[in-house]
Amino acid sequence: MAFENLSEKLQNTFKKLKGKGVLTEADINEAMREVKLALLEADVNFKVVKEFVAQVKEKAMGAEVLESLTPGQQVIKIVNDQLVELMGGTNSKLTYSPSGFTVLMMVGLQGTGKTTTCGKLAAYLKKNGKKPMLAACDIYRPAAIDQLEVVGRTVDVPVFTDRENRVAEDIALKARKEAEKKGFDVLIVDTAGRLQIDEELMEELVRVKKAIKPHEILLVVDALTGQDAVNAAEGFNEKLGIDGIVMTKMDGDSRGGAALSAKKVTGKPVKFIGMGEKFDALEPFHPERMASRILGMGDMLSLIEKAQESYDEEKAAKLEKKLRKNEFTLEDFLDQMGEVQKMGGIGKMLEMLPGMNSKSVSDDEIEKSEKEFRQMEAIICSMTLEERRNPSLLNASRRKRIAAGSGQPVSKINSLIKKYEDAKKLMKQFSNPNFMKKNKRFKGLF
User: Which of 107, 108, 331, 424 could form an SS bridge with 114, CB 3.0 to 4.6 Å?
Assistant: First the structure.
């Protein structure tokens, strides 16, 4: 999880503050010392840490904080506000051309996941109603064009290639003309990278920029490289001028220092973060939501958005009708488990719930839950259609047959049936209008 170590340390620090009825200057100094160490351990830029801690301390020492009824909570609010500001304040969205055709130029060093990110961005744009095309302009890296074509097929987005041409800016310009001619509204240009910033690379990128006049230049950096990612962003911005940063491999970076430092050091916002290998794992970067997650206050907005993405109004209406008629089957139960998986699985959901830090639920427990999901799926898929739709048919001999077919013991089948019955009762309660009226706190959640 991104910011895992930082989140744990900050939450432990603030637990001590929340336990005190009155805060002294010494309490705040001690807390700020721990915050400073936590940020430095998270690989946040030293100058950024120094300025951040000074600003928090100045605000925390105010009389309105020290004399308030909940001084600990006031300090946490100050830290939250400063973290949001540090990461850019608000979500920085892509800028689209008013003419209706937008060119996005992707740049970065080799090994950052730039080509894959082009595909993820194309998938994101498609999901949001755009019609993107990809352009292969990396003429140096072996199989770079082939890789982009594979990525394009995976996300079902066309790729412009010109294998005989060895001039990147010519290929990019041809791609732009082709995309406009064929009615695409976004062109994503994949450019060459190097192991390090050099004059030759920058000169080529400047020529490509001049040829296609991109509406945005997005720099792809690897979060796992920490401050090297921030230094790369500084270098690209100075020589080329970038509009935003896409930070890949955030799901594998437990420190998160690059994301916290990037905006302050470069002046350019982090626009997207890569949170997994799948092509739907590119997320807009929301500073306020990330700050909330770091401080253990959850990220309910992102959780709701993920639920809405996988929400099917027609399926929901059918399910409600089935529940009212007491027709909720094991197929429906499997469907509901699938919805949880679509949202990233139990582990992803728990990260977004208030108070659920990295230690609230262990990796072993999450893995156990995910494994249980897979076992349930195997069991249900080993049943006949009739058995799935009418579980009352599952006598002892049928359960033995299903156990053999799914590779699970009969006890697992018995456990699944009990879980299904419990879920059926609970969902029937929620679908009852009288229950919803009596329990107003559930209104809008189901």
Answer: 108
